[in-house]
Each structure stands twice: as structure tokens, then as C-alpha cells.
Amino acid sequence: MACIKDEKQYQILLKKGETLMEIVNEDTPDTDANFVELDLLVDLVEEYEMEHYPIEEPLLADVLKLCMYEMGLNQKTLAELLGISAPRVSEYLTGKAEPTLQIARKMHRNLNIDANIILGVV
């Protein structure tokens, strides 16, 4: 199968993909030439992006901050939710401490954080 050779080709294919996305919708049959072309472009672009623009796994501190934002929590209310002190939450948010297994379980259950992120195994 072909691959994208450089950034210039990547940018050209991104623009072509945007054009095709305006034409193709959920009602477009998978035998339509535009659908097939878009499907191939998506695969090419995805492969290039995985190699040249990898997305790193999030850190626990970043996920905790996102949860706090989404749930409207401050450090004090997060501490209450997890049954720990606010200074301990601060240590988690700065990466100075890692949660115990008991707190990791509470983070998983109460905040719906993936256990692999909490344990740093991703």
C-alpha cells in the first residue's frame, strides 16, 4: 500500500480529505468513488500521523485537572470525594506523589479514570 512521503503530501491529502468530507455523509454508499477515496485517505493520513505526530498517554495529574474542571471541583471538594486531605490532592496534581491502591480505586470509581492511567501502565 502507498504511504505519505513527506509533510507536503500530508498537507495536500488533508485538504483533499476535507473536500471529500463535504461530499460524503452517512447516506453515501460504500461503493461510491468519493467514499472509497475518503476511506483510503483516512488510512494514509492516520498512518502518517501515528508515525510523525504520536499522541502521548495522559499523566494522572492532567486527567485529575480535567476531571476537576468537568465536574466543577476544587482541591478541597476533590479531597472530600476521595477521602484524603487537600494537601495530598495538591501532591497528586503536581506529580509529587502517587496514589495508594485504595485511593486509586476511589479515583477509578468516583472519577471514572482509567485504571491504567492511575497506575501509570499505559
Short summary of the structure?
The chain has 122 residues and is mostly helical.
Architecture blueprint of SSEs:
Blueprint: H1 7-23, H2 33-52, H3 60-71, H4 75-82, H5 86-94, H6 101-111, H7 115-119
Characteristic key phrases:
122 residues; mainly alpha; 67% helix; 2 domains; 434 Repressor (Amino-terminal Domain); 0% strand; single chain
Give a structural overview.
Helix 1 runs antiparallel to helix 2. The chain has two domains: 46 residues, no CATH class; 60 residues, lambda repressor-like DNA-binding domains (434 Repressor (Amino-terminal Domain)). The longest helix is centred in the middle third of the chain and has 20 residues. The chain has seven helices and no strands. The chain is 67% helix and 0% strand. By secondary structure, the chain is mostly helical. The model has no long low-confidence stretch (mean pLDDT 94). The chain is elongated and about 60 Å long.
Main sheet makeup: none
- For the record, the CATH architecture of the largest domain stands as Orthogonal Bundle
Structural class: mainly alpha
Instruction: Give the H and E element order.
Output: HHHHHHH
Determine and state the CATH class of the largest domain: Mainly Alpha
Q: Tell me the Rg in angstroms.
A: 22 Å
Assembly form of the protein: single chain
